Inverse folding.
């Protein structure tokens, strides 16, 4: 039984029980297993009437919704290759991906999205809205659809942190293996389980990790709550009250900062207890640990931590985090509260996942062991190489790019890492991000950026600069609503430089008062920085930093 047949079978078994729900203000719009199957059948009727054939590509441009899930599964069941796109990307970027994929039809959630895209494209293929797709006959329950493991089911475009986005072709075999792995790990997290899992999600389904979460939830006894308003994320999370949800590090950093700021502002005994307990937790297992620290932790666990946990959700069992490195201090912060943060590492090319934290053995700073059936090893320059049934077969219409990253049966991730004696992996940087100083020294920017950001909570992003320069400099983007002074930055850099070799020391900095955003093009849809664009956009500021340094 392939992954799609398993999902259809599970939806039939769910019957009138809810499986998906959208959050709109204080209300839920729900779909049961039967209702979702009916929508899938309706969408399949449309796909057939539109003349879409097996192997053709169909672009799907819409925010997360019940209908998004129904149309996605309907297209796959009919053998059409789905090209999911992110609605917050610039229309010109979306147009480029659609042209590259050769999509013969575009499906949009609204007329506004359709018209905006067609205005940019000019020579666009046929386009349909959800109103047109889901207004036909009921369609009844969807019959099971057979898929060969080699059948492509999706072309997911990479975020393009450097160069043009590339279409990653994922097939049914990739999904068959990945969903067996995610379900096994979620079973371990949720054991024992007597009621349906409550899951919350806000990331776009056009990203591989979000899509895998959707398919995983539809293949198990879950109710997946979908955010519809990112400006009300906190309220939606409280309303959903989930057991777990998928995060990017940026959100967890914001939650940590908000809690610490609120406690600090309250002052008095509560702030003193929290501060001492946090220090004691960070010192555990070191020579600096003291018996008094255990007492402060015990007091905080009785008086403070339960209140913080309640604010995060009474049913919360774990937070799942991926897409970018998570600061060790942030992971320890949530562990201290009794909320494990399970890290996941992977790429679109590996069907989103290579490693997953084991809920019974979490090591802060590590992203867990490899998933079953996957091999990982280190190649030249500590690059992580992987092979296994979840590795993609190639990029869409890019044979040279495919040949470059798939060599001798191994996928070259471009990520640098290390593995410890427990089999847990740690990601240390990107080979493409290495800064080569004109002295010949190679510097991985990520550890330095993480450390400086940890010293400056008001800095939303820290970016190291210095390729072919004599020294390192930093660009710091201030979080929305926060303030950061030159004195604070200088002090933090001075503190950091004390333990660094000369070539890793930061010699200059620039404070950017506006945060980096997806809309500005500097941050990708999954929270990664477009470093080449940052260097280009802040060229004048970078030149000023080094000119002052030289004078």
């Amino acid at each position: 039984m392939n992954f799609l047949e398993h999902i259809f079978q599970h939806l039939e078994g769910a019957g009138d029980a809810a499986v998906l729900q959208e959050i709109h203000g204080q209300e839920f719009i729900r779909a049961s297993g039967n209702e979702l199957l009916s929508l899938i059948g309706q969408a399949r009727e449309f796909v057939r009437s539109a003349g879409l054939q097996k192997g053709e590509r169909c672009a799907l441009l819409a925010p997360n919704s019940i209908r998004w899930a129904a149309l996605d599964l309907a297209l796959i069941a009919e053998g059409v290759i789905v090209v999911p796109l992110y609605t917050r990307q610039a229309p010109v970027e979306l147009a480029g991906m659609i042209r590259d994929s050769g999509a013969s039809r575009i499906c949009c959630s609204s007329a506004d999205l359709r018209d905006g895209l067609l205005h940019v494209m000019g020579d666009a293929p046929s386009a349909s809205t959800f109103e047109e797709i889901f207004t036909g006959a009921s369609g009844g329950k969807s019959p099971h659809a057979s898929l060969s493991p080699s059948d492509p089911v999706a072309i997911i475009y990479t975020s393009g942190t450097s160069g043009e986005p590339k279409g990653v072709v994922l097939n049914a075999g990739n999904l068959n293996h990945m969903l067996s792995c995610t379900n096994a790990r979620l079973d371990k997290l949720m054991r024992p389980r007597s009621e349906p899992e409550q899951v919350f999600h806000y990331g776009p389904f056009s990203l591989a990790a979000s899509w895998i979460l959707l398919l995983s939830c539809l293949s198990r006894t879950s109710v997946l709550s979908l955010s519809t308003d990112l400006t009300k994320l906190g309220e939606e999370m409280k309303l959903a009250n989930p057991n777990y949800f998928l995060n990017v590090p940026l959100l967890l950093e914001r939650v940590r900062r908000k809690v610490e700021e609120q406690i600090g502002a309250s002052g008095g005994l509560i702030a003193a207890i929290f501060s001492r307990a946090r220090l004691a937790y960070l010192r555990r297992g070191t020579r600096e640990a003291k018996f008094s620290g255990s007492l402060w932790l015990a007091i905080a666990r009785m008086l403070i931590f339960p209140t913080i946990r309640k604010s995060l959700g009474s049913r919360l069992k774990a937070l799942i985090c991926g897409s970018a490195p998570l600061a060790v201090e942030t992971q320890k912060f949530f562990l201290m509260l009794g909320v494990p943060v399970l890290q996941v590492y992977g790429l679109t090319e590996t069907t989103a996942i290579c490693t997953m934290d084991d809920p019974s053995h979490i090591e802060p700073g590590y992203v867990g062991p490899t998933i079953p059936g996957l091999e990982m090893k280190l190649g030249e320059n500590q690059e992580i190489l992987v092979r296994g049934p979840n590795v993609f077969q190639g990029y869409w219409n890019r044979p040279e790019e495919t040949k470059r990253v798939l060599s001798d049966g191994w996928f070259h991730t471009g990520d640098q890492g290390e593995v410890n004696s427990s089999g847990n992996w740690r990601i240390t940087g990107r080979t493409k991000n290495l800064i080569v100083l004109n002295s010949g020294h190679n510097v991985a920017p990520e550890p330095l950026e993480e450390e400086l950001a940890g010293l400056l909570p008001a800095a939303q992003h820290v970016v190291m600069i210095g390729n072919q320069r004599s020294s390192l400099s930093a660009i710091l983007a201030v979080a929305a609503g926060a303030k950061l002074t030159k004195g604070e930055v200088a002090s933090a850099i001075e503190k950091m430089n004390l333990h660094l070799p000369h070539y890793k020391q930061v010699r200059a900095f620039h404070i950017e008062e506006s945060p980096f955003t997806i809309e500005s093009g500097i941050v990708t849809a999954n929270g990664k920085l477009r470093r080449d664009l940052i260097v280009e956009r802040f060229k004048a500021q970078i030149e000023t930093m080094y000119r002052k340094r030289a004078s």
The mean pLDDT is 91. The first helix runs from residue 3 to 14. Residues 277 and 296 are 5 Å apart (CA to CA). The chain is about 40% helix and 20% strand.
